Amino acid sequence: MTTVREAALALLTHHADTLNHRSGQFLGQIAVSATPLSEKQAGWLAKLLERAGLPPLDDGSDA
């Protein structure tokens, strides 16, 4: 199971050239935060993962 942190770091590490400033800030924040994602944040992360061609987080994960 992929964690929110792992997903955020994968996007930042391997897809940084496709991210805008705001998305990069969001991913950095969720990579270090212990706070669960809100529904809106989880949706944004899912959209970024989809655009990068990465698998979505499983339901019931850290999101």
Break the fold down into its secondary structure elements and pairings.
Layout: H1 4-14, H2 21-32, H3 39-51
Describe this structure in words.
The structure is a single chain. With 63 residues, the protein is an all-alpha fold. It is built from three helices and no strands. It has helices spanning 4-14, 21-32, 39-51. Helix 1 runs antiparallel to helix 2 (21-32). The model has no long low-confidence stretch (mean pLDDT 91).
The major pleated sheet works out as:
none
How would you spell out the order of helices and strands?
A: HHH
Strand content: under 5%
- Shape summary: globular
* DSSP E strands, number: 0
Helical fraction equals: 55-70%
Separation of the first and last Cα atoms: 12 Å
Write a brief structural summary.
The chain is mainly α and 63 residues long. It has helices at residues 4-14, 21-32, 39-51.
Please describe the structure with a list of short key phrases separated by commas or semicolons:
63 residues, mainly alpha, single chain
